[in-house]
Amino acid sequence: MKFFTQFTTIVLLLSCFLSIQAEKLKSSQSCEFQAIFNFGDSNSDTGCMSAAFYPAILPYGETFFHEAVDRFSDGRLIIDFIAKHLGMPFLSAYINSIGTSYRHGANFAAGSSTIMRQNKTYFDGGTPFTLEIQVEQFNQFKSRTGKFFTQANKSSYTRHFPKPEDIAKSIFILDIGQNDIADVISKVGKEDSHALISNIVEYFSKQIQSLHFFGARTFWIHNTGPIGCLPVAMPIHNAHNNQTQVVGYLDQNGCVNSQNDLAKEFNKKLKDIVVKLREQFHDASFTYVDMFSAKYELISNANKSGFVDPSGICCGYHENGYHVYCGNKATINGKEIVTSSCEDPSKYISWDGVHYTEAANQWIANRILDGSFSDPPLPIAQSCQITH
Q1: Do the Cβ atoms of 364 and 291 come closer than 8 Å?
Q2: What residues make up the domain containing 264?
Q3: Which domain of life is it from (predicted)?
Q4: Global pTM?
Q5: Residue 355: active-site member
């Protein structure tokens, strides 16, 4: 009897050990994504706005591409480093029809994009490519490319487009909300910012649900960054701002607290929405990525990480409230201002006062890809695992 009890105990322990090992093996397996579909604003736009309106000009793209490319940086964006990490080529913008390949996905992100619908035109600082439109563009992409694979000569399309069954094996990345928060900031004192933010995240949830309906199953969702730490928001580049002397207006890094507080509120509500989506869709994985913390860590440790002061801007003119963005020129107080880039962009966090340099993008990408800033804390290559 004693021997039988010992034997049973050993069997149970062995079974438990094998179960744990199986779970470890499962958690270490790569998802082997077939494609990436990206949705967002200028932080991940790889050509939409240039294809739709005006082509890119130097010095945008000068560091990595050595020519004008359709990115709001001197080189690669975070989405470019994500694609490289997953073993895929750079994503082509959905509406960029020249020299594009969509075999490994498409990028629907567009500069100035928002989650909410807009009443402004591009020339008024708006964009027609809101998240809702980007999601509909994906639906069209899926529908149109799917038809190719029902034709007799479908083999000729496999080199250019993902197979219909690859949609469920793809990762859907969303990095949007910064422009919505900027709009909320502009309405502080005029409208209820808490209600506005709640409406934004609820509308975001609807677009995620639409993507799920269209076949998306793995979501990698970035929250919004510290908008109050963008150099153009800092008082050093806005001498006309009469609030700079108010106690508590700025944090230890010179960032505007009130603006970052709104971003934090958005992020908290966004995370709550992600939790609800997990509860609603048990056949999908939702990874919430804390971009705010990753970017703020870089800003807080700029010097230790080899960067200049985070308020520094590599390209553009930003003085006394006047802003001439990178690659443009203007006449201010009778003096012609011609903008050019700094001598070494790799030393700067901010490229043009709003967007990050390639060096900063790479620093951030290296921090988020291993899951260190994610909930659940899974590397991006394993983010297809469903956790509830």
Answers
A1: yes
A2: 33-313+349-382
A3: Eukaryota
A4: 0.90
A5: yes
